[in-house]
Amino acid sequence: MMKPTDQVVFVVDDDPSVREALSSLIRAVGLRVETFASAQDFLGYRRPDAAACLVLDVRLPGLSGLDLQRELAHAGERVPIIFITGHGDIPMSVRAMKAGAAEFLPKPFREQDLLDAIRQALDRDRVARQQRAELAEIRGRYDTLTAREQEVMALVVRGMLNKQVAAELGISEITVKVHRRHIMEKMKAKSLPALVRMVEKLPVSDLTDKGAHT
Question: What are the angstrom distances between the C-alpha of 212 and each of 147, 157, 169, 179?
Fold first, then answer.
């Protein structure tokens, strides 16, 4: 279970009174909060390596909230965004949600609605971060395989028997068995189904890129 200190809520709003009110509300439920007066201030802040979400006003001086959403997307930043606005309209809401916003709350909103949205966004980011870390770990293990081991693994996870793999690659069945043992060790897979699940999580581009070198 992630502790509140392992999570952070960013608030970007150009109104000092709104920033203070939101900061007090979020801190009251035990969450860490960092506030910013502009999108530029937020972009210049070195964000901690923690589950997070962004409570973002749509209308800001300089870069708007929607502009900031685009900037973060272009930079590969995946922090969930909860938009708040006193001037929202349906097209704006649709644009924000289509671009991946977690929630869009028109002012005035119920405090509990915002807190619920924050909890959901933090949970979403925590799960996404875990999935990215798991993928990076699997990718790192896959990169330790030799080109031949990658070839063997690709055939094994398709359900081929050792003798079929041997025939496909023009090697002996004993050699296939040796490769399989090395693959299971390097991938840290305790069973063939576990290995298959790992491979299913790897993007196809990873597998085809590696296959190009075999």
Answer: 9, 18, 15, 19
Beta-bridge partner residues of 52: 8
User: How do residues 62-100 score in pLDDT, each as one tens digit?
Assistant: 998 889 999 999 988 889 999 988 766 667 777 777 778
CATH class of 144-211: mainly alpha
| 13 Cβ contact list (under 8 Å, min separation 6) | 19, 22, 35, 37, 55, 56, 57, 60, 84
Topology of domain 4-132 in CATH is Rossmann fold (3.40.50)
Q: What angle separates helix 90-98 from helix 65-74, to the nearest 10 degrees?
A: 10
pLDDT digits (tens, 9 = 90+) for 97-118: 777 888 888 888 899 999 999 9
Give me the long-range contacts of 43-49 (CB less than 8 A, separation at least 24): 43/68, 43/71, 47/8, 47/10, 47/79, 48/8
For the chain, what are the domain ranges?
Answer: 4-132, 144-211
Specify whether the CB–CB gap between 39 and 62 falls below 8 A.
yes
Among 203, 163, 204, smallest CA distance to 180 is for 163
CA distance 106 to 84: 6
Distance CA 79, CA 184 (A): 35
